[in-house]
Fold this protein.
Amino acid sequence: MRADPREHVHEHEVKELLRAAGVPVPRGVVVPCGAEGPRGGFPVPGELAEPLVLKAYGPGLVHKSEAGAVVLGLRAADLPAAAGEMRARVPGLAGFLVEEQAAAGVELIVGLVRDPAFGPVLLAGLGGVWAEALRDTALRLCPVSERDARRMLGSLRAAPLLGGVRGRPPVDLEALVGLLVAVGGPGGLWERLELGEFELNPVIATPDGVTAVDARYLPGGPATPPGDGSTGGNTGGSTGGSTADFLPLFEPRAVAVAGASTARPNFGNMFLGFYRAAGVPLVAVHPQAEEVAGVPAARSLAEAGGRVGTGVDYALVAVPAERCAEVVRQAAGVPFVQVMSGGFGEAGHAELEAELVAAARAAGTRLLGPNCMGVYCPRGRQTFVGGGLGPPGPVALVSQSGGLAGEVIKVGERRGLAFSRVVTIGNAADVTPAELVRWLAGDPETRAVGLYLEDPRDGRELYEALRALDRPAVLLVGGRTGQGRAAAASHTGGLVSDRRLWEAVAEQAGAALVSSQDDLIGVLAFFQAHGSRPAAGDGVLVVGPSGGASVLAADAFDAAGVRLDPLPEGVAGELRGLGVAASGNPLEVPVGPLGRPGLVPDVVRAILRRRPYRDVVAHVNVPAFFTYGDAPQALYACVRALAAAQDALPRTRVTLVTRNGECAPAGVEDEVRRVAAAAGIPVYRSMEAAAAAVAAGGRHGAA
Ligand code: ADP
Ligand code: MG
């Protein structure tokens, strides 16, 4: 047992570990010494090639250069004098490390930290003095693959430095990738270290290889798997790998509502109303009443099944927080209980939340929430929204906010989304997002998954679940700050932020990460429309009217990380024949009330014959149709022509942008959406929204 878990491991000891792991380090010798210096004078190591580096080590000596404990460019003969001066400068020095000086090159930082939610994380970036000034780094969750390592390096702004700029030869990229994998890959150092923090800064990369010239390791406590309660994780113990069958949650035989009042209508009564409208068999739970608002009532959850004449699969509990556990304790035989009430962990009452989870465990029921709205599933007549059920469809949503989920349902359905399963989980004290994602992966009704998260409880488990998900997913994460976490002794700690971590999770799990509710809906609409289309080819073609709009479209796609490749060679003549100048991509095509509705499809077909772009984004300026013409017919004709083109191009994904749609008379946009949706074309009101959706869809193309 280590006395102090943060005890510093000396640089030369870390370098031994590195050497054993196959990470190149400079050749060197260690010269231990006390306050009087090395016994018998400073030994001059003959076997090391000059120039040499002299470094001191000792307790608390973490940032050596700042303490004057690094001298570069020494000859062997200089060592005794340099060591004497260093001893005078550096109090508490325990010894020296003399090593060969690596040739100059690109200095990088490579680090490992254990994130409280996501576990071991590898960081790579521009190192040395640049590390903190430029914060040019990439993160990945361990273990990283060789491909991950390559993509990390490729994503750095400093990537051109590695490839060789201004006549400099490129660095040995293979060696660098090898180093990243040796540290953060399968079987890598991360598995053998007790993190803590671990940092190589710098690693010097040259055309001839890489060398870790500095190494720092601060062991942490023993590894605690995320979600074991020590990180505020799942209070009820691990549910990882759970095989709970969530079907009765979404398609219950009957629903019970506890908390509706006979005297003063409250939330519970509102839900009774929603459920009645949805038509699911329903029973109220009330200590005295025979019925509540016309719904038959039972005395307790235990008696609810008898009252409704069929098993109750889902109970909604909307009583004050301190009484929830008591109600849940009687839920034996009800597989799912949702606690709507707030006032638990989120309000500083962790003890009430723990009591609630214990009650659910005792009753053998699974708990949803607390502090959530419930479940929406048109197929199962499950709901928590007023206004009736929308059509069943392929889109699932897991949300830690009930309010947000309600908005996504309402706005999404207005825009044509159709849901398979929506589940809100609030504090996720028992049922976690990871578990739900695992179940959705096997749900035949679900073809795309959206997630809104604030604190996933067990981030590592969620990451694994997303990796195992074989259908497109999009993540919206609230409360991501751009700030680094509290930096300890290493730069690495300060360079890891929630935002960067979620980017890594999305990248490695193949999910899209968006930053607004609007984009969450937009990306889900894209997945719904195009998810099952076996898109071929690659690249994105943008066509529509107006030079300015075309220029801005290029910027919007660029900002979304989508490159618009130039038009294929030799297409100009054919375009000219159609009356269109080959202005580039975005391609400016006159579209309006006086134009031919089939022009855009003709142009698109001519281009696709030469190059199969995977995505075609067509845009129109809606008011133009009403300024020069007065009927929406010309607009509809354009959309119908595009719909016909999509039908004829099953391996291309067509997307429509109706710019300035608010200028259209009421109902016009709905009709446009209807026609487009029938052909499987998603519609966006701005180029930015379309770009976000196409970018997300790019991860799921077959190309
Ligand atoms: P610090 O504790 O201050 O980070 P380092 O061991 O990283 O100390 O040394 C400071 C700097 O000296 C490094 O950033 C690197 O530029 C240079 N340096 C240190 N060791 C070597 C070496 N063996 N070969 C070449 N340069 C070195
Ligand atoms: Mg250093």
Notes: Residues 1-6, 225-241 have pLDDT under 50 and may be disordered.
